[in-house]
TrEMBL record:
GO molecular function terms attached to this record: endonuclease activity
Protein name per the record: Endonuclease
Domain of life of the organism encoding this protein: Bacteria
Family per similarity comment: Belongs to the UPF0213 family.
Pfam families linked to this entry: GIY-YIG
InterPro entries: GIY-YIG_endonuc, GIY-YIG_endonuc_sf, UPF0213_domain
PROSITE patterns reported for this sequence: GIY_YIG
Keywords, ordered alphabetically: Endonuclease, Hydrolase, Nuclease
GIY-YIG domain boundaries: 9-87
């Protein structure tokens, strides 16, 4: 059995959306500030996030271990859209853009 303590690292599972909040993207990163900047600047022009202008943070969770973050990312990606929206609204009821928290 693996027992996880608090962990000393910083990993984030996050959801971003477009300006109209119609598209959702879920990802995992060890540096949310850098990753949000990459989405904003369309580092990979052919990516899903670049094509749909998905760059606005509306949800995130912090983890101390990458294994837990990856497992949570997969769990969220497997959710129906309705459940993702419920998760977001519990965390961020007004669905405000949270990018400024990581500038």
């Amino acid at each position: 059995m693996i027992e996880y303590t608090e962990g000393i690292y910083n990993f984030y599972v996050y959801m971003i959306t477009n300006k109209n909040r119609t598209v959702l993207y879920t990802g995992v990163t060890n540096n949310l500030k850098r990753r949000l900047n990459e989405h904003k600047n369309h580092i990979n022009a052919s990516s899903f996030t670049a094509r749909y202008n998905v760059e606005f943070l509306i949800y995130y969770e912090h983890f101390g271990w990458i294994q837990l973050a990856i497992a949570r990312e997969k769990e969220i990606k497997d959710m129906r859209r309705e459940l993702k929206l419920n998760l977001i609204q519990e965390f961020n009821p007004e669905m405000k853009f949270l990018n400024s928290h990581f500038e």
